[in-house]
Design goal:
Layout (H helix, E strand, L loop, with lengths): L3 H8 L6 H6 L4 E5 L11 E5 L2 E7 L5 E5 L25 E7 L2 E4 L11 E2 H4 L5 E8 L3 H8 L36 H7 L4 E6 L3 E9 L4 E10 L3 E5 L4 E11 L2 E10 L6 H9 L2 E2 L4 E2 L11 H6 L9 H10 L17 H18 L18 E2 L3 E6 L3 H15 L7
Parallel strand pairs: 7-17
Antiparallel strand pairs: 1-6, 2-3, 3-4, 4-5, 5-6, 8-14, 9-10, 10-11, 11-12, 11-18, 12-13, 13-14, 15-16
């Protein structure tokens, strides 16, 4: 339970807000490269961190974000026609860098920080697929569900186990390393993990341990990448790196890079899968509060915990949007299962203080020399003997990296 003042401090992201100032010191996903495809002179409206912007090319041909005027009736995610766009003369201009399908913008003070050498950035373009989706809620509750390891055993509980070979491009459709047990079965049968949280140079490493029969432990390693991203295993082949990007105080986009350690990603299939669930140009989900997320009580009886289909993004969307535009944390009661959320909020409050006191060097990943040396992070599922779960988890990650067709070594 926290005060309303503190809840406002850590959720609101406008230009003059504490959390907004922290976000502006990091590269933020602003658009998909796909959104610029086919435009020789792109004028793409972008709403980011409470500002109305347009992505365009400057006189040198470089992508930038420039400030634009917003019409009085413009909704936060509305894409006005290009001929309606009017730039604000003398307004801020922000640099843009394209990385494997996502255009990142820096909206902070001083020199932009370096990018870490994460797998999603150093893998070749052929092995990374990028997509995004709109959630109508504050960015923080979107992030916090991603760093809650316990929720997968309930919110994403599948009552039947599919053949993992039919689950390409879908999360929780694989077998845990070193076993024939589907991940869906592991999560269902062992729903209450022990959770360990360690601070790292990029944020937090979150290890959830599901102690199984026969002296075995299921180890799932996920990560919080400061300020608003996660890195989690999707399957033995892929990991997901996902940013929860504030549009304004009450809307956010998730931007995801799917990175393969094996074969090149089937981008056409993965895009087709996700466009069945989203509309363009806003990338808004077709299942939403207006249609009760297509809830089906018959499905809930025998197939899924939520009764909202097989796409786990819809499960998460329902959970975070149902809390309200900005979650009321004055009424919450955090427990042992919320260890990562507690640690993250402390990290965010420390970062807010660092920015307010001008000590930007205390923020994660702000050193131009050391940040490019940050690699990984380790994100995987493994089942191992309980007395050596750490070694087994690291060995499973090394095995995958050594077999990768691109340089995935750490």
């Amino acid at each position: 339970m926290i005060t309303q003042k503190l809840n406002d401090q850590i959720t609101r992201i406008g230009p003059d807000t504490p959390a907004g100032a922290v976000h502006r010191q990091y590269w933020q996903p602003a658009a998909l490269t796909d959104e610029l495809a086919g435009a020789n002179d792109p004028m793409l409206p972008v709403n980011l961190l409470g500002e109305r912007l347009v992505m365009m090319r400057d006189e040198a041909g470089d992508l930038i974000l420039a400030t634009r005027e917003a019409s009085a009736d413009e909704a936060p995610t509305h894409h006005p026609a290009r001929e309606e766009i009017r730039l604000v003369e003398g307004g801020p201009v922000y640099p843009v860098v394209e990385k494997n399908g996502i255009c990142f913008a820096f909206m902070g003070e001083g020199e932009a920080p370096a990018f870490p050498n994460f797998d999603c950035f150093r893998a070749p373009e052929s092995h990374v697929f990028a997509f995004k989706g709109l959630w109508e809620c504050n960015w923080l509750q979107a992030l916090e569900i991603g760093i809650d390891p316990s929720h997968a055993s309930f919110l994403h509980r599948f009552l039947q186990d599919e053949d993992p070979s039919d689950g390409y491009g879908k999360q929780f459709r694989d077998k845990a390393a070193n076993t024939d047990m589907p991940i869906t079965q592991v999560l269902r049968e062992y729903p209450r993990p022990d959770i360990e949280v360690d601070e790292t140079p990029f944020g937090l490493k979150i290890t959830s341990l599901r102690h199984m029969k026969g002296g075995l432990t299921h180890v799932r390693v996920t990560n919080q990448i400061f300020p608003s991203a996660i890195c989690i295993p999707m399957s033995r082949e892929m990991i997901i790196t996902q940013w929860h990007v504030p549009v304004d105080d009450e809307n956010c986009y998730w931007f995801t890079m799917f990175t393969s350690f094996d074969k090149p990603v089937n981008k056409e299939l993965m895009r087709e899968q996700r466009l069945k669930e989203h509309s363009l140009p806003d990338y808004a989900p077709l299942k939403n509060a207006s249609n009760n997320y297509h809830y089906d009580p018959e499905e809930q009886k025998s197939l899924t915990y939520t009764g909202m289909g097989m796409d786990i993004n819809v499960h998460d969307q329902w959970a975070v949007e149902s809390m309200g535009a900005i979650q009321d944390r004055t009424r919450e009661h955090l427990g042992r299962g919320d260890a990562a959320i507690i640690r993250y909020r402390l990290l965010l409050r420390k970062a807010i203080k660092a920015v307010q006191t001008g000590k930007l060097d205390r923020l994660p990943m702000q050193d131009m020399q050391t940040t490019p040396q940050i690699m990984g992070p380790l994100s995987n599922d493994a089942i191992a003997d309980s007395d050596d779960w750490l070694g087994a988890s690291m060995a499973a990650d090394m095995e995958r990296r050594q077999a990768a067709p691109w340089d995935a070594t750490v």
